[in-house]
Amino acid sequence: MQQGKFIVLPESLKEDEVSVATPEAIGLRAFRKCNVGQGDTLLIYGIDNICMLVAQWARKAGMKNIVLADKDDEMVEAARALGFSLALNVSSEDLGKLVGYSTEGRGADACVEGTGESEGLAECINLAKVGSTVVCVGLPKGEMNLSESTYQEIRRKELTVAGVWKGEGEGLVWSRE
């Protein structure tokens, strides 16, 4: 075993607390890559466990403009129940209008794509402001394709597109002994 890859867990930690260590780390790593803070707008496209952890890290950092988007009413309602009032269903509500209103037309300061679908990535790219970052955390469900115009948006806006594969501390061996 590689030295420095073994962590002894305190007995006081419960199994369910340990089980969220990797998702929490992925969420934190994605949030840090966004490089946003108070006063900025973060768009999270896709409402799943990892994306909700990103949203919670953003809220913990003092962010108020956290826009969450999904196609599933249940996920949108769950996000709203957790206090994320800027959650919406992209199938029935205008995401571009909300982001435009929230940012006075500038675009989101950073975006997190959590669906692993071309549509979500394209929306993040199109709604990101000039010079911002798009972080990809969604697992692809098939081929990912970008139109020429969406690709040109990356170039025109000089966006940084980053991915998060694993959390900080991923690959560590956890033990109680």
Summary keywords:
Rossmann fold; alpha/beta; 177 residues; six-stranded parallel β-sheet; two-stranded parallel ribbon; 7 helices; 22% strand
Total strands = 8
Biggest beta sheet summary: 6 strands, parallel
CATH topology: Rossmann fold
- Structural class, by secondary structure, is alpha/beta
How helical, in percent, are the residues?
25-40%
**CATH superfamily membership, which one?**
NAD(P)-binding Rossmann-like Domain
SSE topology string: EHHEHEHEHEHEHEE
Q: How are the strands ordered across the major sheet?
A: 4-3-2-5-6-7
Poorly predicted sequence stretches spanning 5 or more consecutive residues: 172-177
Question: What would you note in describing this structure?
Answer:
With about 180 residues, the protein is of the alpha/beta class. It has one domain: NAD(P)-binding Rossmann-like Domain (Rossmann fold), CATH 3.40.50. The protein has seven helices and eight strands, in the order βααβαβαβαβαβαββ. β3, α4 and β4 form a beta-alpha-beta unit. The longest helix has 14 residues. The radius of gyration is 17 Å and the shape is globular. The relative contact order is 0.19.
Topology (SSEs and partners):
Elements: E1 6-8, H1 15-19, H2 21-34, E2 41-45, H3 49-60, E3 65-70, H4 73-81, E4 87-89, H5 95-102, E5 108-113, H6 118-127, E6 128-136, H7 148-157, E7 160-163, E8 173-175
Parallel strand pairs: 1-8, 2-3, 2-5, 3-4, 5-6, 6-7
Helix pairs in contact: 2-3
